[in-house]
Amino acid sequence: MTEKQNLISEGKAKSLFETSIANELLMVYRDDTSAFDGKKKEALSGKGSINNKFNAFIMSHLQRNGVETHFLKQTSDNESLVKRLDMLPVECVVRNIATGSLCRRLGVKEGIKFEEQPLFEFFLKDDDLGDPLINDNHIIAFKWGTADEIEQMKKITFEINKYLCKIFDDAGLILVDYKVEYGRYDGKLILGDEFTPDGCRIWDKETGESLDKDRFRKDLGDVVESYQIVAHKLGVKV
Ligand code: CDP
What we know:
By secondary structure, this protein is α+β, with helices and mostly antiparallel strands. It has helices at 47-64, 101-106, 136-141, 147-170, 214-217, 223-234; strands at 7-10, 14-18, 24-29, 32-35, 40-43, 71-76, 79-83, 86-87, 90-95, 119-124, 133-134, 173-180, 182-185, 188-191, 200-204. It has 2 domains: 4-83, Phosphorylase Kinase, domain 1; 88-222, D-amino Acid Aminotransferase, Chain A, domain 1 (2-Layer Sandwich), CATH 3.30.470. 29% of the residues lie in helices and 30% in strands. The strands form 4 sheets. A 5-stranded antiparallel sheet has the order 1-2-3-7-6. It is globular and about 50 Å long. One of its GO terms (molecular function) is phosphoribosylaminoimidazolesuccinocarboxamide synthase activity.
């Protein structure tokens, strides 16, 4: 087990610690679960461990396909070692099917499929403001990122979508939408944060059942059990 040093940030579901190596951090996945900008909270036993393993599986798959990520290695049941990034304060949301906030915001029908090209949206990472929708110009005007970084985020995110849609589809699942975040490392922009069922929507291809954090948002129960079903179908060792 890698030794934790100073706590540098405590998010809603993960804590980040310094290690004895300056540019390596330990990411600790907790059981805490939150939704609606932190207004709904609960600890779900076993969630930290499954998310850590799920994330390790997805990040490793992306790396094998040439997508650079901050993930270095899983060091325990609920901890992983990552590269220290200078994170951009923006969230990239990719949608293959319309649902959630998109439908509320634009009054469009649930279930519209974006077959030609997935829908890509930027949000500002700010819970107090409810993570507002922003565009490329906001990012440049407020220096949250450069024009080149915006292009990089779009390019890498579309690549990620291609690789992930395939493995979910092969596993009998639909990757409906998700959020990714990027950070700077050694002059480059690379994938940071996590990819877990906490930050995406996954539906069963046959039944249409939600197997992600919507189960928590909508009080459907069996949250961790559903994450386990997805992990099992994808071949994640839990
Ligand atoms: O989840 P909600 O309906 O509020 O927002 P959304 O814009 O429909 O979310 C799109 C996707 O991004 C979902 O899979 C969310 O779980 C994910 N997301 C996230 O993980 N973190 C955020 N701060 C916002 C969205």
